[in-house]
Amino acid sequence: MLIRRKNFLALSGAATATALLAACGGGSSDDAGTTGGASDAGGASGASDAGGAVTRADADLVIWTDEEKAVSLEEPAKAWGEANGLTVAVQTVAEDLQPNFITANQAGNGPDMIVAAHDWIGNLVQNSSIQPVQLPAAATEAIAPIGLEAVTYDGQTYGAPYAVETLVLFANKALTDVPEPKTVEELVEAAKAGGAENVLALPVGEQGDAYHMEPFYTSAGGYLFGKDGEGNLDPSDVGVGKEGSITAAEKIGELGKDGVLKTSISGDNAISLFTDGKAAYLVSGPWALEDIRTAKIDFAMSAVPGFEGMDPAVPFAGVNAFYVATNGKNPAFAQQFATAVASSADIAEQMFPKNELPPINLELQKKLAGDYPEIVKIAELAGSAEPMPAIPEMAAIWGPLGQADANIVGGADPESTMTSAGEEITKQIGG
């Protein structure tokens, strides 16, 4: 079962905002993020009672995650437990996994582990919900560097990574003679020469999509947060509104005027425009592969190109990992499982058939390359991406920057629009 198309911001940014509200004592969440059903040790069962509270299963090792991860993890976790003389329960939290986990952990009735995206780490650490993990020395050789970088926060390792995703460029070979353009300008020229109805299907929408715009933003010199002397992200140094972001805004504005970027193209129709043969190129991730294959498009994949004469385009990388709860009943078993995930490809390999996420384990990448070349190529391209910022302040970026991008694509003044976005972000972080 290939992972289905998702709005990445809903799974990461919105969930981050939810947890940030929880950490600050805020109220309701918008439920845009975590989804799921439920599974118990050895079989499916509800993880929530009638009142919506999450109930820990009765097992030696309890793991909470979303539905797709739970389905893929159930059997390998059970097998690992049997091999180690332990009972293991994999539970799906139907809604609001992150805040539910934080609340349950604080009450002492949560799971021993959770499986989630790495950009949750900052909020989870801020809420004292996860603890550092001790990965074996062999992990540095077994796991791609982007995986270890993503789960490192304030100099400590907080998770055992197993999968990664990033944005890539898909090209419809029937609509372009340049399947792997090296620059944005080359992409535009080739698509126009091929007569495509749309040059590029990149989600913008009326409210913007800073996640999908990140490659172009970085190529023109934009950054989100600076770094302190120790290499950690510095939330006091917001890059939105500064020189590089202004240059990026101007380039994005040019693409809007040229009809390359359109607010009419959003997460709802970007992939379908490509699969219907109405766009020469598509910027998307591994979640697009199933639809592209079903449509029998003759396609190529490559890195998202940057602007001619400017920096390389650097998209975000999202890493999925296992985390050990601070107040779990059996932290030693959780640490043992994290070590197993990090030291061997076995568990990730067993999870793969039911949730085809690009693997972070280098041995597994080699093993899957023959039958799943596109999946492995995405994993390899993720090596040149930048981990999604895991600091809680990232929640302040998405809305203002995304809206600024959409307004600029729609014809708003690039400099004043981006400057205003930076001011709004800085105010949110400082407030």
Structure, explained:
The chain is α/β, with parallel strands linked by helices and 431 residues long. Helices cover 40% and strands 16% of the residues. The protein has 18 helices and 15 strands. It has helices spanning 8-11, 13-23, 67-83, 97-107, 121-126, 139-142, 145-150, 184-194, 210-219, 243-257, 270-275, 289-294, 331-343, 346-351, 362-368, 373-381, 398-409, 414-430; strands spanning 61-65, 88-92, 113-117, 130-131, 152-153, 156-157, 160-166, 168-172, 198-201, 225-227, 233-238, 279-284, 299-302, 316-325, 386-387. The strands form 4 sheets. Strands 1, 2, 3, 4, 7, 14 and 15 form a 7-stranded mixed sheet that branches. A hairpin with a 5-residue loop joins β10 and β11 (233-238). α9 (210-219) crosses α10, α10 crosses α18 and α17 runs antiparallel to α18 (414-430). The longest helix has 17 residues, at 67-83. The chain is globular and about 65 Å long. The N and C termini lie far apart (44 Å). The relative contact order is 0.18. Residues 1-46 have low confidence and may be disordered.
Concise account of the structure shown:
The protein has 431 residues and is of the alpha/beta class.
